[in-house]
Design goal:
Chain B: InterPro entries: NADH-Q_OxRdtase_suN/2, ND/Mrp_TM. The complex is a heterodimer. Chain A contains 21 helices and four strands. In chain A, strands 1-2 form a two-stranded antiparallel sheet. A two-stranded antiparallel sheet of chain A has the order 3-4. The radius of gyration of chain A is 21 Å and the shape is globular. In chain B, strands 1-2 form a two-stranded antiparallel ribbon. Chain B is globular. The relative contact order of chain B is 0.10. The chains are: A mainly alpha, B mainly alpha. At the A-B interface, helix 5, helix 6 and helix 7 of A face helix 19, helix 20 and helix 22 of B.
Chain lengths: 498, 484
């Protein structure tokens, strides 16, 4: 069992998705939902041992699986997780479970295909996080786009087709350069696609620079970093609630994970040389995108911009270098921020989805005084809003605080600019909260609102527990990542110049 | 000439095909229109017989026949098997299409089989003359096939265009061949290669001939700037014939390039590599860019073919066994994908209705979800998105050119395939995200459904397990070139 945990995490959702697909048209929607729920639950359960059996003192890969796949190109089905990737496999399975529940009654059109798309995507994303072979990673990384494209394009809002194609082409642009980079490295490492070999091979600075450009395009688009972020607000606004949740909670993390797994360890000297560019772009994302979020009139767009701003912290944490390597605080803070953002943004998008299902508007101006009609909902929304603005005791605080501590060690002005997010984040989130939730009942739509039902309550409660739990006891997360982060930092410190 | 030097056994599949096709030609004269299924069955038996003979006679070592004018080697055998499959699928898919349009006659079968014979000769020739004869047999059969619906104006126009431009290309090719003959005094590709290698052939004359030969190849493959006929012929031909033109001849064309350039003129590689780079980059660029502007599905697929043929050339110009086998893999994968793609178009057509506009695909996922999923497979495979096999074809080619130190070419190729992804995505968008204009589901017989499903699932299965086919291509190219 233990040695096949990662394969199970990948294939259980995919097989469940195929079963869901077999149920066919909407006359069997009930079955589709039930099978999807069972599949998502099973998919989540098989990932839990990844946490409980994870050896925290071990900085290398765990739960490894290795099987030749395409011998001609020396591509292996090589899986494994360390403290950097393990949480995202679990987070992904967890989010998928919530997404299935979130779409239970809301999706009435082509239910089987909707559920199947999410399950299959979940398996593919797990594959990308667990792959230790670069080409295997690429296959999962790319294949994931197919269900994502369909989810946004089929079940999205008004302008869904534009958003779906934009999302697909943007991400494909990045990943095609990644493909060339991988093939180049394949020949540099004497025909191996093992990520570990890529990390070991000595490369001249110029080559590292080119590779960094390729990695930057592939992963910065996914994160997304300023200035290649423009697909995200479109995709979020048009995606169905479940799509937004997965996008924000998981797929963005895949980009950040790519920086950590590929860009930093494969091109460390390039990071020392040109890492400041990424730092500058991250700071622009934090400050400028934070300001952009402030003026949004569409709730989903606002949260989308806030996601970009929060992800700025992540890339900042990775690329603030002290003595030629990222700081422990920076990397761990960034990882915590990634996980926390997974909970918080999923919660925020779900809250917006709850309101949208009732009123069919995402405009802030169409709401006001929701607290009067939906008190339970308002309480949950407050928690997520607070977490989004980084209030202590919520998960949002921990990551940002750690990154800011790390930044102080590097450069006061980095820390100063990063810390402005505590002001901006609070302003845009709480201002939106005030306009939507507080005040007098704005119109008859709001007056007619019904509070959350049991299903919605369950999703909100689970996410709320996660947000609070992580805020109160972050060690549960950091202690498992510590050894891997140390390994990474030691690796990045050593020059790879030939 | 003795019987031993004839070595007819090596050419057994061709001989069988020729005899069987001639027999079908005669038998069909005595068959009434309503019993045409007999011709269909006989054609299938012919294909199966040829496949059996090819598999049975398969050996890694090349077997020479007709005093060195013909060779049956592993590469040609594998390609021939692909051709049988493509022609067989084409005949099967087009049954009801052809019956609805009065094309379900003996000519369709015999001409297709003669075209197949031409392709097989192309794949197995080691002499400029036999290469040319094979090419002409293929081309003449195709010209006639395009013009099969006599009263259709687009088809006649396409046939005319195809014929005139094809004849021009043949002329170019022949002129180039005559230059090569003048420089080396031989039509045998091995002798030519030897003369080029030992420097006894006049270099200027050889390169002069080479330019014309590459031009001819460019025409036949449909590479930019010799691509003008491709969209018109694809659009104007009856879809069944488009399917044939778009699939199996690409395998033959690959063999043609291999015989002429790689086996015949390895010493001139520095010269033809440069020419092929120009053809490949232009094809990938123009093919992908112009495909975006198309509203006709067949025309769009025509431009997509042009770009795919550019990719195929990338593999060849890498100039390594890896590159050649990558190109061979690409050709086979492309043939499977193209057959499936045109198969969907073919099966969607009804009497008096050609499902060839992009708009006809609107809302297909609501009308016939099964069709839509099959087409989705085709589109994502053509766009080169994993896990479909099209991705591994692109991967193999790009890997080969990166190994040949042509990284910039790899970057150009992937950037244009990004542009290409757009129009494939648009097809998926039309099928899945638009409302249908016509709600009626598409009626297709169960056997065709199964056949097309197998065809499309092959793209997924080969994508999950591409290794065997990759190894097969690598070994057969290696053995045929005598480097293994």
């Amino acid at each position: 069992m233990s040695e096949h945990l990662l394969s199970l995490a990948i294939w259980v959702p995919i097989v469940a998705g195929l079963f869901v697909l077999v149920t066919g048209g909407d006359q069997n929607a009930g079955w589709a939902r039930k099978i999807a729920l069972v599949g998502a639950l099973l998919g989540f359960l098989v990932t839990i041992p990844l946490y409980t059996r994870f050896a925290p003192m071990h900085g290398g890969m765990q739960f490894e699986e290795m099987r030749p796949w395409i011998e001609t190109f020396n591509i292996n089905y090589h899986l494994g997780v360390d403290g950097l990737s393990m949480f995202f496999v679990i987070l992904n399975a967890f989010t998928t479970l919530l997404v299935v529940i979130a779409g239970w009654e809301v999706i009435q059109n082509r239910v089987a295909q909707y559920m199947a798309a999410f399950l299959i995507m979940s398996g593919l994303i797990n594959g990308a996080f667990a792959a230790l072979d670069a080409m295997l990673f690429y296959v999962f990384f790319e294949a994931m786009l197919i269900p994502l494209y369909l989810i946004v394009g089929v079940w999205g809002g008004q302008n869904r087709v534009y958003a779906a194609i934009k999302l697909f082409l943007y991400t494909l642009m990045g990943s095609l350069l990644l493909l060339v980079a991988f093939i180049y490295l394949y020949f540099q490492t004497d025909r191996s696609f093992e990520i570990a070999d890529f990390q070991r091979v000595a490369l001249p600075l110029a080559v590292q620079g080119y590779l960094m450009v390729a990695f930057f395009f592939a992963f910065a688009v996914k994160v997304p970093m300023f200035p290649v972020h423009t697909w995200l607000p479109d995709a979020h606004v048009e995606a169905p609630t479940g799509g937004s949740m997965v996008l924000a909670a998981i797929t963005l993390k895949l980009g950040a994970y790519g920086f950590l797994r590929f860009a930093l360890p494969i091109a460390p000297d390039a990071a020392r040389e040109w890492g400041w560019i990424i730092v500058v772009l991250s700071l622009i994302a934090i400050v400028y995108i934070g300001l952009v979020a402030l003026v949004q009139t569409d709730m989903k767009k606002l949260v989308a911009y806030s996601s970009i701003s929060h992800m700025g912290f992540v890339t900042l944490g990775f690329y603030m270098l002290v003595d030629g390597a990222p700081t422990t605080y920076g990397v761990e803070g960034a990882l915590v921020q990634m996980i926390s953002h997974g909970f918080v943004s999923a919660g925020m998008f779900f809250c917006i989805g709850v309101m949208y299902d009732r009123v069919h508007s995402r405009k802030i101006a169409d709401y006001g005084g929701v607290a009067n009609t939906m008190p339970k909902f308002a309480a949950f929304a407050l928690l997520f809003a607070m977490a989004n603005s980084g209030l202590p005791a919520t998960s949002g605080f921990v990551g940002e605080f750690m990154v800011i501590i790390g930044a102080v060690k590097v450069n006061f002005w980095y820390a100063f600019l990063a810390a402005t997010t505590l002001v901006f984040g609070a302003s845009y989130t709480l201002w939106m909260y005030k306009r939507v939730i507080f005040g007098d009942v704005a119109n008859e739509n709001v007056a007619a609102l019904k509070d959350v039902n049991a299903r919605e309550f369950a999703v909100l409660a689970v996410l709320a527990v996660a947000v609070l739990g992580m805020g109160l006891y972050p060690q549960a997360f950091t202690e498992k990542m510590h050894a891997s982060v140390d390994t990474l930092i030691t690796h990045v410190k050593t020059s790879k110049l030939p | 000439m003795t019987l031993a030097s004839l070595n007819l056994v090596a050419a057994l599949p061709e001989i069988w095909l020729l005899c069987a096709t001639s027999a079908i030609l005669l038998i069909d004269l005595f068959i009434k229109d309503e019993r045409r299924d007999i011709t269909y069955a006989l054609s299938m038996v012919t294909l199966l017989g040829a496949a059996f003979l090819t598999v049975n006679g398969f050996a890694w070592t090349p077997r020479v026949a007709f005093s060195g004018m013909f060779v049956a080697d592993a590469m040609s055998d594998v390609l021939k098997l692909g051709m049988y499959g493509a022609v067989g699928l084409m005949l099967a898919y087009s049954r009801s299409y052809a019956a609805d349009r009065g094309m379900y006659r003996g000519e369709l079968f015999t001409l297709s089989l003669f075209a197949l014979l031409g392709m097989m000769v192309m794949a197995s020739s080691t002499n400029l003359l036999t290469l040319y004869v094979g090419l002409e047999l293929l081309s003449l059969s195709l010209y006639a096939l395009v013009a099969l619906p006599r009263d259709s104006q687009p088809a006649t126009e396409a046939a005319m265009k195809y014929f005139v431009l094809g004849a021009l290309a043949s002329g170019m090719l022949l002129y180039g061949m005559s230059m090569v003959y003048g420089a080396t005094g031989s039509l045998d590709i091995h002798t030519i290669a030897a003369k080029v290698a030992d420097g006894s052939a006049n270099h200027t004359l050889m390169v002069f001939g080479l330019v014309f030969i590459v031009t001819g190849i460019g025409f036949k493959l449909g590479n930019v700037p010799f691509h003008m006929w491709v969209p018109d012929v694809y659009q104007g031909s009856p879809t069944a014939v488009t399917l044939l033109i778009g699939s199996a001849p690409k395998l033959a064309a690959f063999a043609f390039v291999m015989r002429l350039l790689v086996q015949g003129m390895p010493g001139l590689m520095a010269d033809w590599q440069g020419m092929l780079i120009v053809l490949a980059v232009l094809s990938i660029g123009v093919g992908n860019l112009v495909a975006i502007a198309q509203t006709n599905l067949k025309r769009m697929l025509a431009y997509s073919t042009i770009s795919h043929m550019g990719f195929l050339l990338l593999g060849v110009l890498a100039g390594t066994v890896q590159g050649y086998s990558a190109a061979m893999f690409y050709a086979i994968v492309y043939a499977i994908t193209a057959v499936a793609g045109f198969g969907v178009v073919l099966l969607m057509s009804r009497q008096g209705f050609e499902a060839e506009r992009l708009a006809d695909l609107k809302g297909l996922a609501k009308r016939s979800p099964w069709f839509a999923w099959m087409m989705l497979f085709v589109m994502f495979s053509m766009a080169g998105i994993p896990v479909f096999v099209g991705f591994f074809a692109k991967l193999a080619v790009i890997q080969a050119i990166v190994e040949a130190q042509l990284v910039w070419l790899a970057v150009v190729a992937v950037l244009f395939s990004l542009i290409g992804a757009f129009y494939y995505l648009r097809v998926v968008k039309l099928m899945f995200m638009d409302e249908p204009s016509d709600e009626s589901p598409i009626a297709v017989k169960l056997d065709m459904r199964i056949l097309l499903s197998v065809n499309c699932l092959a793209m997924l299965v080969l994508g999950l397990m591409p290794n065997r086919l990759l190894v097969l291509c690598y070994q057969s190219v290696g053995h045929s070139l005598g480097v293994m």
